[in-house]
Amino acid sequence: MFIHYGLYAVHGRHEWAMCYERIPRAEYRKAVARFKPRVGCTREWVKLAKAVGMKYACLTTRHHEGYSLFDSPANKFNAFRTGPRRDLVREFVDSCREVGIRPCLYYSVADWSDSGFVAGPKEDPRGWKRFVEIVHAELKALMTNYGEIDYLFYDGCPPDARVWRGAEINTEIRRLQPNILISDRCCMDEDIASAEQHTMGPGKPWECCMTMNDSWGYNSTDEDWKTPRQLVKVLLTCMHNDGNLLLNVGPKPDGTIPATCVRTLRQISQWAARNAEAVYGTKGNPFAYADQKLSVYRDRTAYVPLHFYHGPDTVVAGIGNRVRSARVVGTGKAVRFRQRDGRVSLIGLPETMPDRPFTVIALELDGPPRGIPHPLMGQGRAKYE
To answer: Which fold has domain 2-274?
Structure first.
């Protein structure tokens, strides 16, 4: 679960309102008086994350607006000294540990409220130096005051990490948090690759962060909600390519997660619970060929989500193993099949989809999964070029 929460929630026009609407700094900050998160809201967030099968949660400790959700002596514009006068990061981390969710922190280096950052290092070198010192002090506070942090998600980083001494602060972060993972959004080669609103191919460990509508922070008029099927497809694509899905919610000003988010998460979680053996602890792309996009495996079992469902006419092709048995994961029902060379016809499937939004088929194989390269794609493509 990705949680975008900050002063922008009060404005209710998503997290970039200050920038897009060019709201003057003094005017924007007036929202502090109306920023009143309910006591216990962080626990509600992570309880929901736990209930729907998520394993970690990442909170925006500071977004580009520059408002920190923790006590920051370096930056008085924070939730501990203004507004709610509470350390929301402390509440979040404690809540995570209480329910068994791994606590992860997002931090934006960019700060639209800092004149030195806005002017830049050439126009205001002294202001920039002060801005960088604040960034380093805040990151050290986050890595010192809240126990073990599993993951640091960077954002808003200047593309040249030297101008904010990124390598220096990351070295210090690793000294303070020896087991932490750091995202490469700091424009340096760190642990985790990040894909925003899209998926990636396999390689280094990666995650896709994605919104449930078109906004990260709360946007009262954004009705472009993704369907559970669309989001499950993203999850399946992440699984196929050995990545994680970091799915975002944008709480309202009082900390309540919008009802549409909750409803969609619960629908996804019901599917994930039925298909848990295919969702958790699997490896991606067992057959390594182009015509079956989404599949994962564990040992000698391959799990194939049927993106296009054709009932008893459904065919899964390119499998180099002998298939010993097939079943619908979500219902446990066996499926009759016929295998001819690398084509497996699932003749025992019903006309209507037995498990929505995606039916996943478990194929028990005679050995580790082996794929058959497609004659018209991949290696065979050279014939036509």
So the answer is: TIM Barrel (3.20.20)
Decide if 285 contacts 39 (C-beta within 8 A): no
- Residue 232, phi then psi, degrees to nearest 5: -65, -35
pTM exceeding 0.85: yes
- Do 215 and 178 meet the contact criterion of CB atoms below 8 Å apart? no
pLDDT at 26 over 70: yes
The tokens for 181 are 């993972």
Beta strands in the chain (DSSP E): 2-3, 56-60, 102-108, 151-155, 181-182, 193-196, 206-210, 243-249, 283-284, 296-298, 301-305, 315-317, 323-328, 338-340, 343-345, 360-365
Can you tell me the distance from the alpha carbon of 250 to that of 248, in angstroms, rounded to the nearest whole number? Answer: 7
Q: Which percentage of the chain shows pLDDT scores above 90?
A: 91
Q: Distance (Å, rounded) from C-alpha 365 to C-alpha 206?
A: 29
Number of other residues whose CB lies within 10 A of the CB of residue 80: 19
Model confidence pLDDT, tens digit, residues 139-194: 999 999 999 999 999 999 999 999 999 999 999 999 999 999 999 999 999 999 99
How far CA 306 is from CA of 53, 121, 138, 309, 374, in Å, comes to 22, 53, 47, 6, 19
Domain boundaries, the chain: 2-274, 283-365
Same fold yes or no, 2-274 and 283-365: no
Peptide bond into 258 cis (omega under 30): no
Please identify, in words, the CATH class of the domain defined by 283-365.
Answer: mainly beta
Q: Residues for the chain: how many in total? A: 385
Residue predicted with more confidence, 203 or 185: 185
DSSP 289: -
End-to-end CA distance of the chain: 44
Question: Who contacts 3 (Cβ-Cβ below 8 Å, separation ≥6)?
Answer: 45, 57, 58, 59, 60, 92, 248, 249, 250, 251
Q: Phi, psi (5° rounding) for residue 34?
A: -105, 5
The string of pLDDT tens digits covering residues 42-90 is 999 999 999 999 999 999 999 999 999 999 889 999 999 999 999 999 9
